[in-house]
Structures are given as C-alpha cells and as structure tokens.
Design a protein that fits this description.
The complex is a heterodimer of chains A (309) and B (195). Chain A has 309 residues and is of the alpha/beta class. Chain A contains 13 helices and 10 strands. Classes of the chains: A alpha/beta (309), B mainly beta (195).
C-alpha cells in the first residue's frame, strides 16, 4: 500500500512540476519579443501620432487586437493590405502577457491581456481621436465583449464599431471546461505549430493561462445570457468561420442572441466558408487556397467599409 | 428570485449536502424492505436536475422501471427528458436545447440505504438556434454517456440519485453541436408510483 501511495505521489509530483522544453528560437524563450515592444510607434497610433491635427483626429482609427498566445503578427496582413491607404489608421495592440516569454505569459491574467486594449483606447481618446473602431480576433472578441458588458464605454468616447473575427465564447476543444481539475496535473499544453509560427505565437500554453481563458469565457457567456446592450451608435459584426477547431462556431449564435444594439436592431453575423481559425491570418499557414485569399480580402474590405461609414 | 437561479444554486446544494451527510453517517441497514419483500415491479417517476460543467443547467423528468426478473430489481431501464428550457435558458439568452435519454442502470448493494450505481445512457440531442442563418451549424447529435453515482434509497418509495456522467460525443467546432459538453453532474428525485 505504501508503495502505491508513494508511486501516486511521485506521478502527481512529476506531473505538477513539469516544465516545457523551450528553445531560444521560440517566442516563449524570452529572447524573441514582439516587435511592438521595441518599436511601439510602428504599431500604435497613440505612439506614432500622439498629437494629431484636427484632420488626423477625425480620421477613423481601427484598434486591432489579437488572440490568445498570438502577437501583433496576427493583424500584419491587414496593415499590408491597407498600405498606402490614407482614409483610416491602424493601431495594432499587443495584449498584456503576450509576445514576451513563457514566464511572463504564465503569470498574466485575462485582465492583464485586456488592459493593453484599454490603455491604447484611453491614449487615443485623450489625444483627441474621435472615430475609433475595435477589431478583435478570437480571445480578443471575448475581451471586447467583456469591455462592453462591464460598462467601460459608459463615460467615454463610444466606439463606432466592434468587429469580431472568429470570436470565442465556446471553445471547440471542450476539455477546456475541465482545466481547473486537470490543469494542475498537466502543467502546460503544447501546440502543434511550425517553427516559423513558434516565433510569433507561444508554443506552450501554461495551464494557469488556460484557466484564465476559461474564466473569461464563463464571464462573457453569462453576460451574454443576461444580455449585453451596445452603446448608442455602436455597431457590432461577427465574422465567423463555419468550421473552426479553436473557437466553436456556435459562439456566433451566443453573441447574436446575447448582444443587442441600443436601437434594438440585431447585430450582423457573417458565416465564412472556411475551416481556419482567424481566417484573416494566412501568413505562415500551409495549404492556403484561393478561396482563403478571397475570404481574407473580402473581410478586410468589409472592415474598412464599415469603419469609414 | 428566478427559478433557474434557485435550481442552480440552493436546490443543488441542498440535495447534494443532504445526500452526502447521509452517505457519511447513516448506518448500512437494510432499506426499501417493502419493495424487496414484494415481487412487485418498481416504476420510479420524478425530476432530473442536470448541469454540464462550465455550461448550462438542464432540467426535466425521468422514469425508470424494474421488476424481480431484472436481476432481482437491481437492473433498471428508464427514460429521461432534460432541457435548458427548464434550466439556464429559462428567461435568458442561453441556447434552448433538448436531450432525450434512454438508460439502463444497475444498482449495487441492494437493501442498503446507500447504493452505488452505474448507468449507461443513449439518446438524442437537439439545439434550437432560433434563426435560419445558423442552419449551417450542426445542431443535433446522438448521445452516449456512462454515469457513475450513488442512490439514497430510504425505506419509503423515494430515491435520490446523484451521479457524474461523461458524454462520449461532443461538439468540436467542425462536427457536433457546440453546446454539447463532456462532463455533467445530475441529481434525480423519484417516487415509486407502483407502491
């Protein structure tokens, strides 16, 4: 009996203390960082144009926010697509805890992830920008919905648009619902991604952050069940892959049922025939099809059109 | 106070607390002697309160039947219907979904107050997304789940079952309804109407 107990203690001990094998070629390693940390003025409008002219302040600004474990890389293709356009500005936010190291990520909470969005929004508002839209992919969709539900915009400049690409409320991998029980035994979860993706996405997901993700999703789901009302003159659209192995497409149903515009008009939902999660990011993916390119451009075009309305 | 809130919090806590106090302190004396002594059949009818871990509460009705020929009343066959319409979706924006379950249950330690049980469920799941635009998403699924639990069976026709179950078929973002989650806990309170 003693032997069995000792073995169980050893197994649990090993499982709980497991740490991933991180190399310096990975974003997790603490040697590669998101470029917005070195050059914030290349990514954040509040840093690039901290004192806008009246004309610049009237120009629409899109704050683009990435998903869980990602970096500003996730919206680089929108920047590339919009290159040369002068009718709107793009600000790419790096979420708190992201783009730094495994340890930094491990100790971050979803509030930390979200605070980077609020910081940029506040800076832009204080600088005098008058037309701000929020664009979020995956987990940022949940972060933005929580911002609206929490009343963050009650006494602030109201965003013109909240645009969500593959927002997550219900995870496709349902074992996330059990992360509080099994997370401490697992320690972390490794993602199957290429070496190139390792440089712009964390490869290892600390169970602590998965618990944070689950907590955020539970809060947002319950907010949606109660009902979230958008501020006046704010529009919301969901762009959702019809097949998505990360953010279950049923998330779009929950958002549609749970969010209403101030005037009572239902929000817009567009299902995109794709099996990619965050289908607007195609760089570093293998087997990208012509249809994927069409989907990406169509969504970028729609995002720009809605922002300019 | 809304009914769903009552179901999800106070009633669950009361039943589970009640059940486990009995489990810990009750003597293992023979119970349900009335039904055991007779050769009559048992038809338990009652309510089933179910909660998926990190998702919806779904409540409904349940019934199960046994007689002396079914392993001396140890084996039960039953039918349940639970729905989020009587749970989380009651007066909220949660998705309305229905589960119809056929089960076979085996009760161990007959005549005891506390009886371990194993159950196998098969059934059908359907979610109602309310709008035709969501027709592209899967909304139905077969159900298959084992359950493991305990029954509080006092010397009256009452049974209180508490168990944990695991849905073998769930949604994964590509196939299967997204709000079909793996682990659920349930409590059922039934009365033998043939007594």
């Amino acid at each position: 009996m003693k032997i069995i107990i000792s073995l169980l203690v050893m197994i649990v001990g090993v499982a709980c203390s497991s740490e991933p094998t991180i190399t310096k070629d990975m974003l997790d390693g603490g040697t590669l960082f998101d470029p917005s940390i070195y050059k914030p003025e290349s990514y954040l409008i509040s840093k690039a144009i901290p004192n806008p002219t009246l004309e610049q302040a009237r120009k629409p600004v899109i704050i683009a926010c990435h998903g869980y474990t990602a970096t500003t890389f996730e919206w680089d293709e929108l920047r590339t697509w919009a290159a040369g356009r002068t009718d709107f500005l793009l600000s790419q936010v790096l979420l708190g805890g992201h783009g730094r190291s495994y340890e930094e990520f491990k100790k971050s909470s979803w509030h930390d992830w979200q605070s980077a969005i609020m910081d940029e929004y506040d800076r832009l508002e204080k600088a005098g920008y008058q037309n701000i839209s929020l664009l979020g992919s995956s987990t940022s969709g949940a972060l933005l919905l929580e911002l609206v539900a929490s009343g963050y915009f009650a006494n602030r400049l109201i965003p013109r648009n909240v645009l969500l690409v593959d927002p997550i409320v219900i995870p496709s991998d349902k074992t996330l619902s059990l992360i509080k029980v099994f997370g401490p035994m697992l320690g972390y979860v490794e993602t199957d991604q290429s070496a190139a993706e390792d440089k712009v996405y964390y490869r290892f997901r600390p169970q602590e952050t998965l618990q944070e993700l689950q907590s955020l999703l539970t809060i947002v789901r319950k907010d949606l069940e109660k009902g979230i009302q958008l501020p006046p003159n704010c529009n919301l659209k969901v762009y959702k892959s019809s097949k998505d192995s990360s953010a279950d497409p049923v998330s779009a149903v929950l958002i549609y049922k749970g969010v209403s515009a101030a005037n009572g008009v239902p929000i817009a939902v567009e299902f995109v025939e794709s099996d990619l999660h965050v289908y607007t990011r195609l760089n570093l993916r293998s087997n990208v099809t012509a249809k994927d390119r069409i989907n990406q451009i169509a969504t970028f075009t729609d995002i720009a059109a809605r922002t300019l309305r | 106070m809304r009914f769903q809130h009552l179901v999800r919090t106070k009633l669950y806590r009361f039943l589970s607390g009640f059940f486990f106090v009995w489990l810990a302190y009750s003597p293992s004396i023979g119970q349900d002697n009335q039904t055991t002594k007779s050769n009559g059949a048992i038809l338990d009818v009652g309510i089933r309160l179910q909660k998926s871990i990190n998702l919806y509460a779904e409540n409904g009705i349940t019934a199960q039947y046994t007689n002396q020929k079914l392993f001396a009343k140890r084996l039960y066959f039953g039918l349940s219907y639970v729905t989020s319409r009587l749970g989380t979706a009651l007066s909220s924006n949660a998705i309305k979904q229905d589960n119809v379950l056929f089960h076979a249950a085996y009760y161990f330690r007959p005549n005891r107050l506390i009886r371990p049980l194993v159950k196998a469920n098969v059934g059908y799941f359907k979610a109602d997304y309310d709008d035709a635009m969501f027709d592209v998403l899967p909304r139905t699924s077969l159900l298959a789940s084992p359950e493991l639990g305990l029954c509080f069976c006092p010397n009256i026709p009452l049974k209180i079952n508490a168990s944990i179950g695991y849905n073998l078929l769930t949604g994964n973002g590509v196939t299967g309804p997204g709000t079909l989650y793996p682990v659920f806990v349930q409590t059922s309170v039934t009365w033998n109407i043939l007594k």
